[in-house]
Write a structure and sequence with these properties.
This protein is an alpha/beta fold. It is 33% helix and 26% strand. It has helices at 44-51, 74-79, 97-101, 117-130, 147-159, 177-192, 204-210, 233-241, 298-306, 328-333, 343-346, 354-359, 363-366, 375-388, 405-417, 435-450, 462-468, 492-499; strands spanning 4-15, 18-29, 33-37, 59-64, 67-68, 82-85, 110-111, 114-115, 165-169, 196-200, 213-218, 221-227, 262-271, 275-283, 287-292, 313-318, 323-324, 336-339, 423-427, 454-458, 471-476, 479-485. The strands form five sheets. The protein has a six-stranded mixed beta sheet, sandwiched between helices. Strands 18-19-20-15-21-22 form a six-stranded mixed beta sheet, with helices on both faces. A four-stranded antiparallel beta sheet has the order 2-1-4-5, covered by helices on one side. Helix 6 (177-192) links the parallel strand 9 (165-169) and strand 10 (196-200).
């Protein structure tokens, strides 16, 4: 057993009547990447959080390097060489990146009543350089960083403790393609030193490629463990979900198809330092993908169209009503909607119920006499949206924060799609959701397209953009490089050539 880093014996964890983990037994070897596959709610993150001291197990045992290991807190786990990058964003937004990296260790940077911020930033960047991670700004509030930058910072922070066991919970889906390559190089360097990674990702192709061993969880139980090379994609999906899943859940047509009617016209859209002279038309019944490498400016385009970016120049016009969009409220008035990549921060009210979240975009339509909400209409709409989009919950009062990532995104989408929309902007619509929910979201988008909805889909995942889009706008270094057609241009090599 000298080559075993972590052994898990009979671990159980319940939340009321729900068994999140039931008699889990696993062996994770030194110098390896061990993948955990499973649907949202299968118990992956619960197991990882217990290993890292974020939650206490009900029963069972952990053994690390042959010694029993029972962390009572993340700090306790850290002292034992265990660190984690969590699925949901784990930063204090009001504090700088450097302070976030050294929370709990500030005393060593104190000089009397002051804190030596320069020394703190210097030490932080040494961690970035040690593991060849791209630098992110550490002197501004962490809440102002892009999701991708925050994830890189969280990884560097986890490495501060020099762990020999690292949990990566859905980190890659927040990263663009070039930073995924950085992550993969880091993983190899880390495991080459005899250290171990427990990797949770919904990108199954990535999991098979990166992991040495994969364990499948379903309903809190380990139902299979084997070498990753011994899994086929279809078999892995079947084991995760418990039924056959079609290998191709994207569009099955190979040609761009949409109506001539232009819904949205963007002309010379510019936000200094973020995007320059972006111009395109969105047609009725079209899915227009937007792709690019990290810092290419793809996510800023969505913000700018919505009206969130200061200093925006150029015009965004809804052609169906000849209305120019200048501020966020204009989009809602013109039968449009925008879903941010960061659904927790900018989409959902996490500490309120599903029902309240579902009705927010429709409060005007639901208002009765004197502006008060009509309780009967309100409940009916919330129930309709919840049932139509198959949100798994205990009811409309279920707190959103307690939902899985996939069900959070269903709530986020359904509250807009129950409205009569003409156009929809989606930024990374399947980030942090499992294979089953992904397939469901794609089916919803295909139906919406067929019904004439114009969709802008910003995506860090090239297969997703290629699989769903009629055309793809490719960004490079904040500039619009090309608009490529599904009919003639959709090969990964051609799109990557334009990106690079």
């Amino acid at each position: 057993m000298a080559d075993v880093m972590l052994k898990i014996e009979g671990v159980c964890k319940s939340f009321g009547p729900t068994k999140a983990n039931n008699n889990v037994n696993l062996v994770l070897k030194k110098g390896s990447v061990h993948g955990l596959a499973g649907e949202n709610g299968s118990g992956k993150s619960t197991l990882a959080s217990m290993i890292c001291g974020m939650q206490m197990k009900d029963s069972g045992k952990f053994f690390k390097n042959g010694q029993e290991f029972d962390p009572k807190s993340p700090g306790d786990a850290k002292k034992n060489g265990v660190a984690m990058v969590v699925q949901e964003l784990g930063v204090v937004g009001a504090l700088s990146g450097a302070v976030n990296m050294f929370l709990g260790e500030m005393d060593k940077y104190k000089k009397g009543p002051l804190v030596d911020m320069k020394a703190m930033e210097k030490d932080a960047y040494q961690q970035f350089d040690k593991w060849n991670l791209p630098h992110v700004p550490l002197d501004i509030p962490a809440g102002q960083l892009q999701i991708e930058q925050r994830k890189v910072m969280e990884l560097a922070r986890a490495l501060n403790a020099d762990p020999d066991f690292l949990v990566l919970d859905e980190i890659s889906q927040a990263l663009s393609q070039d930073n995924r390559e950085v992550l993969y190089k880091f993983i190899k360097k880390f495991t080459d030193q005899g250290k171990t990674i427990l990797m949770i990702t919904h990108d199954l192709e990535e999991m098979v490629e990166i992991c040495d061993t994969i364990s499948v969880l379903r309903d809190g139980e380990v139902i299979d463990t084997r070498a990753s090379k011994d899994y086929s994609m279809d078999e892995l999906k079947r084991l995760m979900i418990g039924r056959e899943v079609s290998g191709d859940y994207y569009r099955d047509d190979q040609e761009e198809s949409y109506e001539k009617t232009v819904i949205l016209e963007v002309k010379n859209l510019t936000v200094p330092g973020k995007c320059e002279n972006v111009s395109f038309e969105l047609h009725k019944g079209e899915i227009l993908g937007i792709c690019g490498l990290s810092d290419a400016g793809i996510h800023e385009i969505g913000n700018a169209i919505f009206g969130l970016e200061e200093g925006r120049r150029g015009t965004v016009t809804v052609k169906t009503s000849n209305t120019e969009l200048k501020k966020p409220g204009d989009m809602i008035k013109t039968k449009g909607a925008y879903l941010s990549k960061d659904r927790d921060a900018y989409g959902l009210m996490l500490d309120t119920g599903i029902g309240d979240n579902l009705i927010v975009p429709s409060v005007v339509e639901l208002s009765g006499a004197f502006g008060f909400l009509n309780p009967k209409k309100t409940k009916a709409l919330a129930q309709q949206a919840s049932e139509a989009f198959e949100v798994k919950s205990s009811g409309l009062n279920h707190i959103v924060r307690r939902l899985s990532g996939g069900n959070k995104q269903k709530v986020n989408l359904s509250r807009w799609l129950v409205k009569d929309l003409d156009y929809l902007i989606l930024d990374c619509p399947t980030r942090g959701v499992d294979i089953g929910v992904k397939a469901y979201i794609y089916s919803v988008l295909k139906k919406a397209k067929a019904d004439g909805l114009g969709i802008i889909m910003i995506s860090d995942e090239l297969p997703e953009a290629m699989g769903m889009s009629d055309r793809i706008l490719v960004m490079k270094e904040h500039k619009q490089e090309a608009i490529l057609s599904r009919t003639t241009d959709f090969t990964e090599e051609k799109i990557m050539e334009v990106m690079l």
